[in-house]
Amino acid sequence: MxxxxxxxxxxxxxxxxxxxxxxxxxxxxxxxxxxxxxxxxPRNRSVAAVLHEARLATLLFDLLTPQEEEVxxxxxxxxxxxxxxxxxxVGATDWLxxxxxxxxxxxxxFGASTGAAAALVAAAERPEARAVVSRGGRPDLAxxxxxxxxxPTLLIVGGRDEVVVQLNREAMARMSAPVELAIVPGAxxxxxxxxxxxxxxxxxxxxxxxxLAG
Length: 214
Prior knowledge:
The protein has a single domain, classed as 3-Layer(aba) Sandwich (Rossmann fold), CATH 3.40.50. α5 (162-174) links the parallel β7 (153-158) and β8 (179-184). It has helices at 42-53, 66-75, 82-98, 114-125, 162-174, 196-211, and strands spanning 2-10, 13-21, 28-32, 57-61, 107-112, 132-135, 153-158, 179-184. The protein is of the alpha/beta class. It is globular, with a radius of gyration of 15 Å. The two termini are 21 Å apart.
């Protein structure tokens, strides 16, 4: 397995990332972290580790520059700026297409919280995306892009995250792509309950194996 720190040039920004490519990789999943998080998100890294076991490569990268992160810590508004975040996710996809190790790999997106909206917008802009998985996501923030997504999409929500469950149901109704809602019983927004994140990882792995690497 190859692991390296990378600098992703995307939408005019230079963004720090971690690229992991298992031997015999069958595809790559680009992660879009959620509100106030980054490439070192322990939850996303836990999911990524399960994907590596399934021979799926991953790119986890910071959607904000260090300077922007400092601003966001004070204002908390950049994390919701899908118009800023989604083009960077698209740019990261194009960056992967230019890298010799990843250019031939089919790709999909894994988005958490507000990152899920950025993932859906990116999937609308790059229809060759094979699959999208959202964890505790805000797909409603993707707006009109929902209608243009073609990639099979799995929306994973905690059963006790009632407001987000409803927002996901409403987003599903707007989508014409194949879409499923998976509710993890007893889980809250961050899936901190025993076994909850493991279930998220299993669901994500199975979805990407089916649609990305199948």
